[in-house]
Amino acid sequence: MKKYFIALVLVALFSAALAQTDNSLEVNLEAYIVSTQTKEDGNSEELFSAAETARPGQIVEYRVNVQNVSDQSLPANNAAVTGPIPAGTIYLADSASSDSALLEFSADGGQSFSLPPVMMTVVNEEGEEIQVEAKAEDYTALRWSISKTLEPQENLIFVYRVIVK
C-alpha cells in the first residue's frame, strides 16, 4: 500500500507558504490523522493521532497556531497566514475555521486568493484559456488574513482538513 510521508513535506511546504509582516508572529503547524470511533451508545466521536504518515482515504487535520511573540499589539488586517493543500491531497470542503480572520482560497498554487467562488483558468476543447469556477478539490492553498488586533502573547488557531488521494 502506498504511504505518503507527510511530516517532512508539510513542514517544507508550510514554511514556504507563511506570510507575515515581520518576526512578530510565530507560526506552528501540527498535523493529525482523524479517525472515527463508534461508542457503546451508538454515537460516534472523532479521535486524533499525530500524523507521521497517511494512507489514501485518510483525513488529515492541520492546526495552524499563530502567536504574537512581540511585546506590542499587532493591528488588525496586518498579517496573513497561508496553508498549502499538499500534492496528493484534496481540501475537504467547509473544513476550515475562519474565526478572527478573512478566509480566502487559491486554485493556482497560491499566486492569487479570493473568497468563493474561486475562479481558475483551464484550456477548453478548442485550446482557448477560459475561466471556470474551481471546486473545493481544485484548491491548492488557503489564506487567513487576521482581522482582529492580536495582543502580545495572544494565540489564534486555524484548522483545515484534507483527504489523502
User: Which architecture does the CATH hierarchy give at level 2?
Assistant: Sandwich
What proportion of the residues form beta strands (DSSP E)?
35-45%
Strand and helix order: HEEEEEEEEEE
What is the oligomer described by this structure?
single chain
Q: Compute the number of helices.
A: 1
As laid out across the biggest beta sheet, the strand order is: 2-1-3-10-5
CATH class, named Mainly Beta
Task: Please tell me what the overall shape is.
Answer: flat
CATH topology: Immunoglobulin-like
Average of the residue pLDDT scores: 88
The count of DSSP E runs of length 2 or more, i.e. the number of strands, is 10
Distance between the termini: 12 Å
Tell me the domain tally.
1
Please tell me how large the radius of gyration is.
Answer: 17 Å
Class derived from helix and strand content: mainly beta
- What's the main sheet like? 5 strands, antiparallel
Low-pLDDT segments, ≥5 res: 1-21
Helix content: under 10%
In brief:
The protein is mainly beta and 165 residues long. The protein has a single domain (6-164), classed as Sandwich (Immunoglobulin-like), CATH 2.60.40.
Description:
- The protein has 165 residues and is mostly beta strands.
- The chain has a single domain (6-164), classed as Immunoglobulin-like, CATH 2.60.40.
- Helices cover 7% and strands 43% of the residues.
- The chain has 1 helix and 10 strands, in the order H-E-E-E-E-E-E-E-E-E-E.
- The chain has one helix spanning 6-17, and strands spanning 25-38, 44-50, 59-68, 80-84, 89-91, 101-106, 119-123, 129-133, 141-146, 155-164.
- The chain has a 5-stranded antiparallel sheet, with helices on one face. A 3-stranded antiparallel sheet has the order 4-9-6. A two-stranded antiparallel sheet has the order 7-8.
- The radius of gyration is 17 Å and the shape is flat.
- The chain starts with 5 loop residues before the first helix and ends with a strand.
- The model is unreliable at 1-21 (pLDDT under 50).
